[in-house]
């Protein structure tokens, strides 16, 4: 179980990555850990939440659309995306949403 990301007051952006994995690890676990580490070093990164129970959902939070674009262009991230298409995901969907409100206890 991952922690709930500590995000600032809105507005900010959420990148929602929903997926189904292929069978076997094939280096996925190591790459997933590296992507979280690398994302956390990127300007504009605010946090991440991830869960897998058959369906995997990872939500990363960003200050701006520009920060998201820069993350998408990162060379290591591009290699992980390529491997995801080739090895790790049978299906996936990526959505980007603007967070206008958040609250909780």
Structure in a nutshell:
The chain has helices at residues 28-40, 65-73, 75-88; strands spanning 12-21, 45-53, 55-62, 89-99. With 105 residues, the chain is of the alpha+beta class.
What do you see in this structure?
This protein is 34% helix and 36% strand. By secondary structure, it is an alpha+beta fold. The protein is globular, with a radius of gyration of 14 Å. The chain has a 4-stranded antiparallel β-sheet with strand order 2-3-1-4. 9% of the residues are buried. The mean pLDDT is 94. It is built from 3 helices and 4 strands; from the N terminus they run βαββααβ. α1 runs antiparallel to α3.
Write the layout of secondary structure elements.
Blueprint: E1 12-21, H1 28-40, E2 45-53, E3 55-62, H2 65-73, H3 75-88, E4 89-99
Antiparallel strand pairs: 1-3, 1-4, 2-3
Helix pairs in contact: 1-3
Give structural attributes.
36% strand, 105 residues, 34% helix, globular, alpha+beta
Q: What is the mean pLDDT?
A: 94
Strand content: 35-45%
Helix content: 25-40%
- Total strands: 4
Q: What is the count of helical runs?
A: 3
Largest beta sheet, briefly? 4 strands, antiparallel
**Spatial extent as radius of gyration:** 14 Å
Class by alpha and beta content: alpha+beta
Biggest β-sheet: strands ordered side by side in the sheet: 2-3-1-4
The ordered string of helix (H) and strand (E) elements is EHEEHHE
Low-confidence stretches: none
Distance between the termini: 18 Å
Q: Write down the overall geometry.
A: globular
């Amino acid at each position: 179980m991952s922690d709930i990301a500590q995000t600032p007051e809105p507005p900010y952006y959420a990148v929602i990555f929903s997926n189904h994995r292929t069978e076997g690890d094939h280096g996925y676990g190591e790459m997933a850990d590296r992507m979280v580490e690398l994302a956390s070093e990127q300007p504009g990164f605010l946090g991440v939440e991830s869960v897998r129970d058959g369906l995997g959902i990872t939500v990363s939070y960003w200050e701006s659309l520009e920060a998201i674009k820069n993350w998408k262009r990162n060379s290591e991230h591009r290699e992980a995306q390529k491997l995801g298409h080739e090895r790790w995901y049978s299906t996936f969907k990526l959505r980007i949403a603007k967070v206008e409100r958040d609250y909780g206890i």
